[in-house]
Amino acid sequence: MKVRQPAYIHGNVYLNGADHFDREEDCCESHMDPEVRITEEGEEVYLEITLPQDFWGIPEMQTEIITTQKLGMVRIVEQRFESPEGKALRLDVDIRGRAREERPLPGPVEGLHAGKNRVSVFHRILPQDRKNSIVRNRLP
């Protein structure tokens, strides 16, 4: 027996000729190659990406902060999405801990701009520091 599951897809960016989901309305498409690279310098891990001019100011792209209320209930177990402490979620910071705008940029990093971007996304913990360090967004 095949059971269809709902999928909510909007506010995504498709670059380098990638096709969007055929029922997605709020998205941005560009044939520009974003030249994505992950680089390391010492203890820092960087995301390097080039973004097109048309990535910003798209009126039909209505991104928003994701919350427990927006996500709704999980269909099978009838539970809401919540924090490990049982509190409602509000995903209003990016992976670097920086505040998201009310209409956030698509993806996990806020504050990107048209053109070349280079942002630190992780701080590597060195083997000698691992014993005493448990930090969110850290690489092994």
Please describe the topology of this protein.
Layout: E1 12-14, E2 27-29, E3 37-41, E4 44-51, E5 66-67, H1 68-71, E6 90-91, E7 115-123
Parallel strand pairs: 1-2
Antiparallel strand pairs: 3-4, 4-7, 5-6
Structure at a glance:
The protein has 140 residues and is an all-beta fold. The protein has one helix and seven strands.
Verbal overview:
- A three-stranded antiparallel β-sheet has the order 3-4-7, with no helix packed on it.
- It contains one helix and seven strands.
- With 140 residues, it is an all-beta fold.
- 3% of the residues lie in helices and 23% in strands.
- It has one helix at residues 68-71; strands spanning 12-14, 27-29, 37-41, 44-51, 66-67, 90-91, 115-123.
- A hairpin with a 2-residue loop joins strand 3 (37-41) and strand 4.
- Residues 133-140 have low confidence and may be disordered.
- It starts with 11 loop residues before the first strand and ends in a 17-residue tail after the last strand.
